[in-house]
Amino acid sequence: xxxxxxxxxxxxxxxxxxxxxxxxxxxxxxxxxxxxxxxxxxxxxxxxxxxxxxxxxxxxxxxxxxxxxxxxxxxxxxxxxxxxxxxxxxxxxxxxxxxxxxxxxxxxxxxxxxxxxxxxxxxxxxxxxxxxxxxxxxxxxxxxxxxxxxxxxxxxxxxxxxxxxxxxxxxxxxxxxxxxxxxxxxxxxxxxxxxxxxxxxxxxxxxxxxxxxxxxxxxxxxxxxxxxxxxxxxxxxxxxxxxxx
Length: 245
Prior knowledge:
This protein is an alpha/beta fold. Helix content is about 30%, strand content about 25%.
């Protein structure tokens, strides 16, 4: 697959992964000065894979994948409010499955998808691949090598129905569990549903490199009012949904 790999010079984890990619050959990751989250990218550019660090107050050691975007009226960490980028479900599944197959090599680490969050945003395809959760972990050579290996071997043609996920927490256990079955695009967390506008929901469906076939709802990851809102949005858009319990 054709994509550009980028990272920030100030990001320890991103730089660590980039060095491993360079050693493997075939990729020349592009270095950006300053935070990628606040960088401006031209619409219709990309696709991009961003090599990055992940911070966790609970110090959850994890390798993660997610797409950037802001579901609500807040945009504290880059991008514009109520805007997402273009999701890459086929590419993310390829990278994610490769990492998941090797995560046992990192004692005390887990692999997880994250919901769509933070910047940059725009009409371009982008995904983040990250090492979490603190400086001690960001310099982990084995973690960097596993991600670099997954990126260097990323291929198209992953199997599974393309879905957009809704519900559950920031770390997306429900959607991580069904990676074998689906290709997952944007994920809307429970905490964003109350302030979610229909136009942003629609954007999440339409900004995707593959056609989203259905919406996968983590049924127990929403309260009754949130379920009603999301199913109403699905009906208004004209897309089927699956109650994932």
